[in-house]
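Review box. Two proteins, two foldings.
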Amino acid sequence: MALFILLIAALCIGIFYFLNKYKKINITYTLKILSIILFSVYLGRLFSDDVFNQTFNLLLVDIDTQVNSMGTWMFSVGMSLWLLMLRWLTVAIILYAILAPYFKIKRVNVTVAFLGTVISLFNIIFFKQNLIAFTGEVQYLSYRSIQFAIESIILFVISIIQLYNWAKSHKTINYKEVLKILGIFIIVMFSVFPQGFLYATIGYYGDIPEDFNMLHIMMILIPILFLIVAYQLMKNKTQEQKNFFIVLIAFAAFFQFFYVKRSGLAGLPLHLCNTAIIIMLFASVFKIRKFFYFNYFANVLGGLIAIILPTISGDINTLDSMGFLFNHWYVFTWP
């Protein structure tokens, strides 16, 4: 299957090269179209269940738990940790790939060109393992298999086109610039931190953030610290970089909110939290002032109340608890 996906990707790249050489297509416009398709396809993964989220305590740190840790493991510890990191890297590079064509920021394009190529190749090589992590079985003609194959192909094609653009410019990258590019990307990765990562690696933390205990106070201080650091980092940047940062956070919030499939009242489109996240995305992408003002009032107030008076009933490391915190951190800080 991996070879077949690579062949399809190579065919797509060949078509792009032919059209660019003989028809002189607009590369930026092409990347914008591909980014929209990538976002649409990624939604198929975002709104689906993920069996791998049940993985618990890979490092056997939580020795007091009553959960049979090894019984939740789908792969060896090494392969599980590798897939956790690969999935984290993939979401971060998809975030970059979707936004890159709309902003003239060289470091973002270079990141997609090099890291995007490597990460998408790893996803294709480990396609079978990824599929097992999604559904618990290997069915190459299933919806999830087809969705992930298309996602991997598009990401690979976008990355190669970005690499082609970089090669055509004949620009070199020095050692310090490489470190800056990697440093920025690592920071961006934390905006889409896998909400099941701590649950999967170390198990339960052993505490619930409530009643202003130390953990609860830390959860309150994190968004405040984020606001201070973000302001200091961005205050001297260009308007283009500031715009990119604002849109990136809105997309990251969207990705994080729908990281877990919701049902019941929480899954309804007009549920307040759902509405706030979606309007954040529309406000940033289409620059709709009325949507922003709604976010400025409803998000800040609602998010602040939720952070101060959280409705978390489970351990801090569980998927539900991490999802609650990430979502309300974003709706509070973004406006």
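Next protein.
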Amino acid sequence: MLPMIPNPTIQHLQSDPTMAKLITHCGPCDLKPRRLSPFQSLTQSIIYQQLNGKAAGTILKRFRALYHGNAFPKPVDVVKTSVDQLRSAGLSRGKATYIHGLAQFAVDGKLPNLRQCDKMTDAELLETLTAIKGVGRWTAEMLLIFNLGRPDVLPVHDLGVRRGFKIAYRKRQMPTPEALDRYGVKWSPYRSVAAWYLWRAADMLDGMEW
């Protein structure tokens, strides 16, 4: 059985009648932080950008195989790997360059570790992470939600979240990021959980009457 999200979260989100209905329909939220190293989390996110899960998973497996071990490679090991060697795993030149640059960013001591991340605000982390070439706001927000477990992040540019809002709230068009940001204020300080339910709406309710 999936773990229940805390009652205060449910009670707060259920003050929005549509969100309350969505919570009832989709069931308990299973959002749990992965707590990978930020380097691993961001590397995997870069690999998965604009690819389906199966293709990205294959490339990730080949990337890890370059280092002949069970553990995820350390930044210093990736820095020693040429962009062309990284491309041999199936990465585009752009992604290989981004991952190499991310590794150098970490080696230079600019990428916070998990303990350091835990001491930083969401805004501080977004500013730090988006300074890395190839890491946009969406990628940084995914790290905050899925890796660090930050509770109040609403990725308003995510197409799945916007599409889920359109479906759940019976809108003719997807909301603009600005409109979704304004509406989402009512879900704070639990916007990450609200986003999770909007993703479920996009997955479960597309084309359904509910």
